Each structure stands twice: as structure tokens, then as C-alpha cells.
Amino acid sequence: MERSKGTSSEPYLRIIGVTKTFGNLVAVDDFSLDVMEGEFICLLGPSGCGKTTLLRIIAGLEEPNTGKIYQAGREITHLPPRERDFGIVFQSYALFPNLTAAQNIAYGLQSRKLPKEQIAKRVAELLEMVGLPDVGHKYPSQLSGGQQQRIALARALATSPGLLLLDEPLSALDARVRVSLRLEIKRLQRRVGVTTIFVTHDQEEALVMADRIVVMRAGRIEQVGTPEEIYRHPATPFVADFVGVMNFLPGYAGPTPNRVRCGSLEFQCANPHDLAPDTPVVLTIRPEDIRLGVDDLSAPNTTTTRVEEIEFLGSFYRLMLRLEALGDTTRLVAEVSSNRMRDLKIEYKSTLSIHLPPSLLHVYPAEMSGIEAGA
Ligand SMILES: Nc1ncnc2c1ncn2[C@@H]1O[C@H](COP(=O)(O)OP(=O)(O)OP(=O)(O)O)[C@@H](O)[C@H]1O
Ligand SMILES: [Mg+2]
After folding, report:
1. CATH code of the domain made up of 248-368
2. pTM for the full predicted model
């Protein structure tokens, strides 16, 4: 049942210009994406951005207004679900309550009219694969939420489909189960090699699981990239804000493409902007990228702050810093290890020098961010 990864450079799944409206509402807006065989794609975005609708279109549960979909070279845009080659898992446990776990898994196999022994063997193999070899005789109500989702996963994989579709399968589970199950799903997906589309609005889940993340906003693609690309080089302030924690400093484009003015401060950035001088901008930096406790206060991109809040988060601290030079409206969030915290003797209300490394600053036009310019 192991699927060898395709050597062909043709995408396994092609979504081309798909649009879906409900009345006046555009749920999916001219969406195009190529997915390679064996890839794990996460569709990530806020509630209502069209993730489920897109997944349902791929499954044939929803008909697009325009656009085409190809799977393994075959056009499937208008095929009914039963003529497509996919397995699906939903957020809420969609197991048949009156069937045992084993019968649930066997469901899709029976409709293929396989011999009984072959079905029993396959069900045992799938139960083993999802780490529940002993629960075949139990009913869904006798299983925990996490166990039910594993059975749902086994059922979705039973016929060895070419495509696995998952719609927030972990979001109803408690945090600990969610974290362990996401790793298991990832491992299983790698082993089976099935091309997977995983819908989530949890950015951490997407970062941990995906080969590539598709960040969606209002039915459209905001950015596609590996987790590292999305986190380190967000294409827009929306992505920067949605994935991870990000600081936004309002300011203006400086006289050269490497400079930004924020109040009385001027920052150098290694990622040049192509904006006219004095264009309102936002300057971004991740909390963990701010260097704390700098000796040379005359160095570029260095300034002093006051520690306004300290949050203890176990392995590190999160600080709320007020920039002395920027008046009362601007704060920066910084993260610091416990050791560094001790070394620098950081306390509530203490003064702390910071440095914003030019290579880790990004500049966006303020109009893209919905954030007020100025300061
Ligand atoms: N059958 C439908 N009829 C009318 N509007 C719908 C229908 N299905 C979805 N919508 C609307 O389409 C938009 C996209 O919905 P969708 O369920 O795809 O979002 P989502 O990204 O999955 O959100 P969530 O994270 O909340 O699950 C929403 O505004 C939703 O209200
Ligand atoms: Mg949804």
C-alpha cells in the first residue's frame, strides 16, 4: 500500500482559476495552485476565507462557477465525488455511530466488493497504522475524540486514495492530543506518500506540518511558500500578522531605499524598499529577532526602551518595551531566554538598550497593512 513518490515533474493536482460564489458572496476568488505528488499542503487563513469551500470543490461536494481541476492528468472539475480518487476527514467526528471502528474503516472497501478476508486484513493493517490495533470492536461513543479522528483517518486511507483531504481534523481535540496527533499524521503521510491538503486556521499547525503553506484571505491566495519562507519573508503585512507574532512600527520611507524614519529614529534595513521618500510605511520585526542589551548606543538601529511588562512563558520571557524616542503610542514585543534575562538583570521598569538588525527588518507600504502611519 506504500505509494512511491512520482518522478514526473507534472503536478499531481492542478487547480486553475477556480471561483465559487454564494449569492453576492465570493467565497473562492480566482484560485490557482499546483500540488506535486506526495506534497503536504496546508490551507491556512482566518474563518470565512474559503478554505472549506475550496476543499469541498476538490472533493466534488461543491461545484465551482468557473475554473478547472485536474488530478493525475485527468480533468475532474465536474465529476461526482464517487468517481474521484480521494479520502476525506472532517473536523467533527463523522464516523457512523451505529458501526464499530472496524466496520467504519471497512465501509469504503465493502462498496468495492472485495473478499471478506482481504477486507479484514486491510482493516487490521489500518488499525495498526493509526496506532489503535485493539479498538476494532468498539463503537465511536466508546472512543476518545483523538481515537475517533484516528479511525476517521484510517477510513479515509482505506482505499489507498491518491489524495487525502483534511478539514481541521484536530480542532475539536484538546491541546495535548492535538500536538501529538499532528506529528503522527505528518509521519503517516510521509510513510504512505499520499498527496495531502490539510485545512487549518492554526498557524502553528501549518508551520509544523506543511511542506508548503497557502495563506488565504477572502477567497484569494495571499502567499504560497515553505513554512520558513512564510515565517521569515512574509509577502504582506497580513501574512506577517497572521503567522507568528510580529511587531509593526509605523513610519515613513527615508531618503534612500535602505532607510525608514520612525518619529525621531532612523532605521537601516537590508531589504530595500522601492517607495518614494516620505511614503507612509510599516517596519516589521519578529520578537525573537530584537537584540537586547547592546553596549554601543551610537551604533545604527540602536535605541533605548523601558520594560513595561514581563510575561513568563516557561522556557522564555516575553517583554513589552516602550521606545523612549517614540512617545507613548509605540510598543515592541521582544522575547528573551531565561538565562539572558538573568544576565541582563531585566526587571519591570528597567531601561534596556535594543538593536534591530537591518537584515531582519522588513518594510511594507502602510496602505497594505491597515495600520495608521506616522509616529
Ligand atoms: N453553502 C453556503 N451557502 C452560503 N454561503 C456559504 C456556504 N458555504 C460557505 N459560505 C460562505 O462562504 C465563505 C467561505 O466559507 P468557508 O466555510 O469556505 O470558510 P472557511 O475558511 O472554511 O472558514 P472556517 O475557518 O470558519 O471553517 C463564508 O463567508 C461562508 O459564510
Ligand atoms: Mg472551514
Report:
1. 2.40.50.100
2. 0.90
